[in-house]
Design goal:
A: alpha/beta; 3-stranded parallel β-sheet; 3 strands; flat; B: mainly alpha; 73% helix
């Protein structure tokens, strides 16, 4: 063991980003492995973003709308 | 978007489970925590990128580079946009319908363009046997023959 995955998350400003915020305020704990990129809407997502994320070495990509 | 990404990942040999899309509204903090926890656990089980796939670092980088080129290709992006418009016109957003259309319209393009980029790159490093090309790109001999033929034709004209 000892493997800590690096996960890149793309979160929508109005949905998951706010959900992450409220989870923080409510003091829920969740894994510290993810790095968040805020997008203004999930419609902004592009296949290019995901491929680029893997190219620079993410182990997983999460999109939260 | 999601279906296209999954198809691209399939083509370059990355497990599609590494990509996950889901929804949680602003009020659903606990749901978001649950989704992220589950996803992190799944990736932890898959191991580092390339391990579950059986691909070396260089091979993976090489294949993802081809995928990157595909995603920046203007012709491909136009086709992707046109398909989105077509789906909108049909008004059928069910996963089955989208999967079927992507399969029909985009998958041949994805495979062709990615394989062609890879073949070009490999050949620019020096002569290669067809077996070596097939091994590096995961293409079938027929697909390779088609690509090499197209490249040959392009040279003549």
């Amino acid at each position: 063991m000892g493997f800590e995955p690096r996960i890149l998350s793309f979160l929508c400003n109005w949905c998951c980003y706010a959900a992450a915020d409220s989870a923080g305020v409510a003091r829920f704990s969740y894994p510290p492995n993810n790095r968040v990129i805020r997008i203004m809407c999930t419609g902004r997502m592009d296949p290019r973003f995901v491929v680029e994320a893997f190219y620079v070495g993410s182990d997983g990509v999460f999109v939260g709308g | 978007m999601a279906e296209t990404v999954r198809r691209i990942l399939d083509t370059v040999g990355v497990k599609r489970d590494r990509f996950y899309i889901d929804w949680a509204s602003a009020a659903e903090g606990p749901r978001f925590v649950q989704l992220l926890t589950d996803f992190t656990e799944r990736i932890r089980n898959l191991g580092p990128l390339g391990e579950a796939e059986g691909l070396s670092r260089e091979r993976l980088q090489f294949r993802l580079e081809a995928a990157r080129k595909l995603c920046s290709n203007m012709q491909f992006r136009a086709q992707y946009g046109n398909l989105a418009r077509e789906i909108k016109k049909l008004g059928d957003y069910s996963p089955e319908n989208i999967a079927q259309l992507v399969e029909k319209k985009l998958v041949p393009q994805i495979r062709k363009r990615i394989l062609e980029t890879e073949v070009r790159e490999l050949l620019s490093r020096g002569p290669q046997s067809v077996d070596a090309l097939a091994e590096a790109t995961g293409a079938s001999p027929e697909e390779l023959a088609g690509i090499l033929e197209a490249m040959e034709k392009g040279k003549k004209s």
